[in-house]
Fold this protein.
Amino acid sequence: MQVHASISVIVLLALLAMLSGCASWNAERKAPPLGAFIDADGMRMHVLTAGPRDGVKPPVVLIHGASVNLRDMAMSLGGPLALERFVVMIDRPGRGYSQRPKAGHELARQARAIHAVVEALDLEKPVIVGQSLGGAVALNYALQYQDEMSGLVLLAPVSHEWPGGVAWYNNASQIPFVGFLLRRMVIPVYGAFAAEGGVKESFAPDIAPADYYERSGLALLFRAKDFKANAADVANLKDEIKKQQERYGELTLPVAIVTGTADSTVSPDIHSRTLAKQIDGASLALLPDTGHALHHSQTAVILETISEISATSGAPGE
């Protein structure tokens, strides 16, 4: 009986492992790389560029949030921005098709990798735009490189320590062996099942585009390596935020913060309102009846904000 039970367990584990592999293959088939690969800061970064390289307006670098990849920014802000300026969209380290370095969860490490891409592309004085967790990375980027920027635009950013924790699976993924089994045998099934609800929650009270799951390549998240990186980013985010939340007063460049008052994912009060008070001259726009994915629901407002920040910096062409 014990032998039969052991064989059954082995067969079950093998089937679940095959399921994980098939899910990863299918996700990559439906959402292949969109851009080019750039060697930056010792890793291969997946980068999508668009728009006129010789435009008079400063370039824009878009940094996506947790769970998503560069496709999220490409389908919301990338296209409209590229009509007038050069736009760079980057898979953060370990996400989408970018490699993951050691200590890849550190905001400073992610910011350095993005800066290395900016240098590799020889961008001059870009506007850095970050959403949600990408906003935390953008803040760290500014703390390191503000003299090389035209401005900083933060969309529903994570900026300060918050009460409570994070979703169970992000912490579970950090546990040796348990995390391995979770990522390869549970997440491929659970993740796909829960994704629709997660999208609705992130957008609420706004409505997500009907084809958002497919166009955003959200299924890439449920690959084992991608999920591991994303879970580590989220699980370590509070500790990372503590390292920088007292330093925001050091920022002297033009800063614009935009958030939705109905955001139930990242509290406007704990983060955006507090952040605006720390940065002299920062503008704060509170958009009524708007949720966390405001770069999709309030695209026109965000585009105008980016233009205004460029003008404030005195960038040519604005």
